[in-house]
Write a structure and sequence with these properties.
The protein has eleven helices and six strands. Helix 9 packs antiparallel against helix 10. The chain is globular and about 60 Å long. The protein starts with 10 loop residues before the first strand and ends in an 8-residue tail after the last helix. Zinc ion binds next to helix 4 and helix 5.
Length: 271
């Protein structure tokens, strides 16, 4: 189950942070690391272990691209995304320390440099969650020139669950309801002010997920605004702040947000 302590929290875009060039030749191929390679949709998987048993997961990740298109109108990536899978945490740490010595270690990582998106992960019981989360970042950034940090994480938190669990069974929902009962809410403007992942703790991640859930399953004008916001980003029209756009589209935005989760149940959900 998702848990902040093992949560991936790094979606680096651009080249400012990372100076060295990562290529398969320089990293693993020359060292003979990669033992299996697969291609599914936009993803090129390279692993230090046999990948046969992961075929269903790879097909699921490939379908994620269509799901982003269906729910967010984000078009399929024209670029390949490489996914590098290590057999264990030790070699994963070794690779990341070699490639990104300045970056704190993460159990899974998405990096974009020079137009090439790469995901790094290792074999572990939560690999499917790790890959759905990181590959969501990778797909978004393959099609959009930027994504606001909180929205990037909120979408990754939403899509990291297997498809049948996304609407009703995300573990964030239980804690969120308790926090809302206690009057704890993170508004969109607070989330929008987060400019660095160090400013996003478990509560910020949860509310980023919650606002995404609200826009995907709540009032239709909220969903429409999210789709138009992402379309503006894709077309490089100045998108403004999503909070402002939602406030204009929905009177009493925050109370509608609270109401959404108060009423949210399988029984009442619109299809
Ligand atoms: Zn993330």
């Amino acid at each position: 189950m998702p848990n902040f302590s093992r949560r991936t929290m790094l979606a680096m875009c651009g080249s400012a942070l990372l100076g060295r060039t990562l290529t398969l030749d320089s990293v693993g191929q020359a060292a003979g690391w990669w033992q299996d390679d697969r291609s599914h949709g936009p993803f090129e998987f390279h692993a230090t272990f046999p990948l046969q048993e992961l075929t269903p997961l790879f097909q699921e990740l490939s379908a994620l691209e269509l799901e982003l298109q269906r729910t967010l109108a984000v078009p399929p990536s024209q670029k390949k995304i490489e996914v590098l899978l290590l057999n264990d945490q030790r070699t994963h740490k070794q690779l990341l320390a070699q490639q990104f010595p300045q970056v704190p270690y993460r159990r899974a990582l998405y990096v974009q440099r020079g137009g090439q998106g790469s995901v790094f992960a290792y074999r572990n019981p939560d690999l499917s969650v790790d890959l759905r989360h990181e590959c969501t970042h990778a797909l978004l950034h393959a099609s959009l020139p930027m994504v606001p940090l909180w929205l990037d994480e909120g979408l990754a938190e939403y899509f990291e669950m297997a498809a049948p669990l996304r609407a009703f069974d995300n573990p964030h929902a239980g804690k969120l309801r308790w926090e809302m009962r206690l009057g704890m809410i993170r508004g969109l403007t607070t989330l929008e002010a987060c400019s660095d992942l160090t400013e996003m703790g478990p509560v910020e991640y949860r509310f980023a997920w919650a606002w995404v859930h609200f826009m995907l399953h709540g009032p239709l004008p909220a969903h429409r605004e999210l789709v138009h916001f992402l379309a503006d980003i894709r077309r490089e029209n100045p998108p403004g702040l999503l909070s402002r756009r939602l406030e204009l589209a929905l009177p009493n935005l925050e109370s509608q947000f609270v109401e959404h989760f108060r009423n949210w149940s399988r029984h009442l959900a619109r299809s």
